[in-house]
Amino acid sequence: MNDLRSDLRLPLLGAGAWAGALAGPVVVAGGRSGVALLVLLVVVVGVGGGWAIRKRASTALALVLMIAAAGVAAGLHAARVSDNPVADLAARKAQVRVIATVTTDPKEVTGEYATHQLRRASVREVRGRGVVYRLRTPVVVLGDEAWAEVPLGATVSTTGRLAKSDSHEESALLIAAEPRVVAGPGIWWRASEKLRGSIRDAVAHRPPDQAALVPALVDGDDTGLSDDLADDFRTTGLTHLLAVSGTNLTLVVGFLLIVARWAGVRGRGLYAVGVFGILGFIVLARTEPSVVRAAAMGAVGLLAMTHNGRQRALRGLGAAVIGLLLIDPGLATSIGFTLSVLATAGILLFGPPWRDALRRWMPQWCAEAIAVPAAAQLACTPVVAAISGQVSLVAVLANLLVEPAVAPATVLGLLGGLLGLVWDPLGKVAGTLATWCVAWVIAVARFGAGLPTAEVGWATGPLALAVLAIVCAAIAFLAPRILRHPVTGTAGCLVLLAVALVRLPSPGWPPPGWVLVMCDVGQGDALVVRTGPGSAAVVDAGPDPDLVDDCLDRLEIEDVPLAVITHFHADHVNGVAGVFLGRRVGELWTSRLQDPPEGVRNLGEAAAGGGVVPVPAPYGATTSIGEARIQVLWPTGDADTRGPGDGSTANDASVVLLVESRGLRLLLTGDIEPEGQDRLADDLAGLDIDVLKVPHHGSRYQDLPWLRTLRAQVALTSVGAGNDYGHPATATVHGLEQSGTEVYRTDRDGSVAVVESGGEAAVVTQ
Predict the structure, then answer these.
(1) Per-residue pLDDT tens for 663-701?
(2) 487 pLDDT above the threshold of 80
(3) Neighbour-count burial of 63, counting CB atoms closer than 10 A to its CB (0-12 exposed, 13-18 middle, 19+ buried)
(4) Which residues of 108-145 are buried (b: 16+ CB within 10 A; e: fewer)?
(5) β-pairing verdict for 714-717 and 691-693
(6) CB 737 within 8 A of CB 743
(7) 3-state DSSP call for residue 513?
(8) What are phi and psi of 538, to 5 degrees?
(9) Vertex 66, ends 62 and 68: CA angle to 5°?
C-alpha cells in the first residue's frame, strides 16, 4: 500500500497541473471567479493530496507549486494567443495578407451556402492596416477547394479577412482567398505523406469501409470513412480506434521493438529504437497536439510492459500529464486528452486487480483481455456521458471482441505501407490481410450498434454525472471481490451480456402525460398523437402491419378518429392495415400526389375494408380532435395530383402537420425534401416549435439552417437499424445537436414518447 501511495505522487502532481491549467486563463482574464477557483484548488488538492500521500507536508507544498506553475503557464499561453497583432486585427475584421505554414490536414465542412476546407496554420507574417508584423501564432483557415490541395507543412501566401475565433487556442479565423505555395514542405513532411499514401494504396482495392479503417488504425487517417460506420463505432465505444491514440503508438513501436530484438538489438539499443519509433510515429501521424498527446500516452503504455511496469507507468503517466500541460496548457480542456489520461489511468489502477481476480479461475490471457478494456471503459464512462448524454452498454463487450483483430490489422497495415514503397504488389498482399482483420472489427461495430440496448440515455447535469461517477467508483472497488469467484464472476458477465442483448423494459408504458409516440417500426414512419383516453390520431403506418398494430396495442389505442398517410411510399403506407385491426378509423387523409400506384392501391384496399374513403389533406385547414389541434401546412391546394412519385417528387408532396397538445407544438414533416422545406421556411417565418419529426429519416438532404431556426427542444428520427441508406446522416444529427436540440432515433432508442412536463417536452423511450 505504501508503495502504491508513493507511485501516486506524480499522478497527483499531474492532477494539480491540470487544475492549474484550467484556472490559469480565467485568472489572467481578470475574473474574480478564476482567482477564487485557483485558491480553492490549491487548498483542496494541495491539502487533500498531501494527506492522502502519508500526510506529508512536502507533497502538499509540491502540489501547491505545481498548480501555481501550470496556472501561470496556461495564463501566459492564453495571453500570447489572444493578445497579439493578429488577434487585434481580427477584432477589427481587417483585410490582410498573410504568410503562414499549414499545420493540419484539410477537413471539409458544410456551411449554409457552400462547402469549405478547414485548415490550421501558423502565421509567420501578416500585413494589415498598412503595417507588417512578423510573429508566430496559430489561426484557423476557412478556404475553398484549392486549400485541400496544399501539402501539409507547406508555406503559403494568401489574402483574406480576419475574424474572431471561437476557440481560445487560435488567435483568429482567416476567411481566405486562393493560396499560393511559396515553400514546399520539409523532407520529414514529404516522407510522412509518402508513407501515408502507400498505406492507403495498399488497401485501396478492398471494400470502402475496410479500406478507410486500416489507415485510421495505423495513423489516424479516417478519410473516406462513412458517417454511418462512424456512428456505429461511437455507439459501441470503439471511436478510439478511429483517432490517433496511445494504443496506435504502443502497437507500432512494439512491433518495431520485436523486429529489433529479432535483429539482435539489446539493452540501450532497444531504448534508442523505442525513441526513434515514437518520433517516427509522431511524424507519420502528424505533429498535431492530439498526436503528441497520443505519443505520450503510448510511451506510458510501453513503460507498463517493462519490469516493474505498473509502478513505472503510474509515475510516467503523472510525468506525461505535467509535461504536456506545461508545454501546451490548451490540452487541459481537450476531450481527447481527458479520455486518453482516464483510459490509461483506469488500465493501470483497475486493470491489475481485476485481472488478478479473474486469473483465479480463468487463463491469464483471457483475464487480461477482459480486464483491460473494461477498466479503460469504466474510467471514461462519466466523461463520455457528459459529452454525449449516453452510456454505452456494449462498449466493454465490443472492445473485448475486436481486441484480437486490432493489433494484427494495425501492424499489417503499417507493413503494407512500408512494403508498398518497395514493391506495390507486395504491399497489397499485406494490406489485404489487414482488411480481413478489420472486416471483423466492422462486423462487431455493426452488430453491437444494432442491439436493442446498445446505449441508454443519461442526463448531463452535475447531479446525474456525480451519481454516475459514484457508481463507477463503486464498481471499480467491488469488481475484484465479485470477479474472484467463478460463480459471481460468471453471473456478472452474463448480466452484462443480457443487458446488451435484451431491451430493458420501460415501466408504466405508455408514460403518463404522453402527447406523441414515434413507434419503432424499422425503416419507416409511424406516429401516434394522443387525442384522449384510448384515442389517437395516427400519422403514417410504417412498412409492416404487425409492427404498427403492436405499437397501438401497447398504447391501448382503440379509436383512431383521424389517420394520415403523408405520402404513398411503402415505408409509410404498407402497414396501414395494422391501423384498422380491431379499431374504428374515422377520417383518412392522404397526400394530394397519388403516386406511386402500389402504395395508393394498398391504402385503397385497407380503407375499403374499414369503410373509410381517403381524401386529400385539406391545405390550411385546422381541426381539433380531443386534446389535439391539427393544422395542415403542406402540400398546397394547387399541388399536382399525378406525377412520377417514386422518388423525391412523392417525398416533397408529403403532408406536413403542425400539432398543438398540452401546450406543446409538434411539427410532423413526413419525407419533405429541401425544396419543400425552403417553401415552408418562407411561409412559416418565425415558427417556433417544441418537437420536430426530422424529415426523410434524417437524410443528409435537408434545409438544415431552417430546421435549426425552429429551435426544437426534441427531434425524432424514425429509422431502421443497419439500413442501407445512411440514415440518419451524421451532418443532420450534429447540425441539430449543435443548436441545442436533443435527437432521438428509433434504431437505438426504440419507441419514443414525448411527454409534457412543466410546460417542456420530455422524452421516455421503450
Answers:
(1) 899 999 989 988 888 888 888 878 889 999 999 998 888
(2) yes
(3) buried
(4) eeeeeeeebbbbbbebeebbbeeeebeeebbbbbbbee
(5) parallel
(6) yes
(7) coil
(8) -110, 125
(9) 120
- Look at residues 340, 317, 379, 337 and name the one whose alpha carbon lies nearest to residue 7: 317
User: What was the pLDDT predicted at 229?
Assistant: 79
CA-CA distance, 574 to 606, in Å (whole number)?
A: 10
Alpha helices per DSSP H over 555-642: 570-573, 576-580, 597-610
Q: Is the pLDDT score of 508 beyond 70?
A: no
**Cα 402 from chain centroid?**
19
Q: Which of 677, 683, 765 is nearest to 717 (CA)?
A: 765
pLDDT at 44: 57
- One-letter-per-residue 3-state SS of 290-318: HHHHHHHHHHHHHHHCCCCHHHHHHHHHH
Eight-state DSSP code of residue 709: H
Distance CA(211)–CA(199), nearest Å, equals 10
pLDDT at 51 over 60: no
Segment 320-334 shows an average pLDDT of 82
**Cβ distance 751 to 520 under 8 Å?**
yes
If you search the block for the grid coordinates 437499424, which residue do you land on?
721
pLDDT at 695: 92
Q: Supply φ then ψ for residue 312, to 5 degrees.
A: -60, -40
Beta-carbon count within 10 A of 500 CB: 21
User: Is 26 a residue whose pLDDT tops 60?
Assistant: yes
Report domain extents, the chain.
2-81, 85-185, 514-765
Question: Cell 483475464 appears where?
Answer: 367
Q: What contacts 359, CB < 8 A, 6 or more positions away?
A: 367
**Is the pTM for the entire model greater than 0.70?**
no
3-state DSSP helix/strand/coil % of the chain, to nearest 5: 55, 20, 30
Match 479500406 to its residue by C-alpha cell: 211
Helix (H) or strand (E) segment spanning residue 584:
strand 584-590
Task: Count Cβ neighbours within 10 Å for each residue of 530-555 and write b for 16 or more, e otherwise.
Answer: bbeeebbbbbbbbbbbebbbbbbeeb
Residues 6+ apart with CB under 8 A from 40: none
Cell (9 digits) for 614: 381517403
Rounded to an integer, what distance in angstroms lies between the CA atom of residue 640 and that of residue 183?
59
State the Cα angle at 635 between 630 and 638, rounded to 5°. 125
CATH of range 85-185; options 2.30.180.10, 2.40.50.140, 3.40.630.30, 3.40.30.10: 2.40.50.140
Cell of 627: 386534446
Q: Over the stretch 108-167, which tens digit does the pLDDT of each residue have?
A: 776 545 678 889 999 999 999 889 999 999 999 999 889 988 998 899 999 999 998 877
pLDDT for 2: 47
Q: What are the pLDDT digits (tens) for 415-447? A: 888 899 899 999 999 999 999 999 999 999 888
Is residue 222 within 8 Å of 234, Cβ to Cβ? no
Quote the distance between the C-alpha of residue 559 and its chain's center. Answer: 41
What does the pLDDT look like over 631-662, one tens digit per residue? 999 888 776 656 665 567 888 889 999 999 99
The hierarchical CATH code for the domain 514-765 is 3.60.15.10
Whether omega before 329 lies within 30 degrees of 0, making that bond cis, reads no
Average pLDDT of the chain is: 82
How much is the pLDDT for 351? Answer: 81
Angle at 658 between CA 654 and CA 663, to 5 degrees: 155
